[in-house]
Amino acid sequence: MGCVSGGDGYPAVMGSDLDGRFRPDAEVAGHLLALVSEHQYAELGRELSSLMAPPDTAPGRGSCYGGVLSWLTGAIADVAVARLGHATNGGSFVLEVRTAAGGSVDARQLPPRQARVGRAVLALLDGDPDAARVQLGAADREPDAEVRVTTLIEALTWLNALLDAPTPALPDPPPE
Question: For the chain, what are the domain ranges?
Answer without folding.
Answer: 24-164
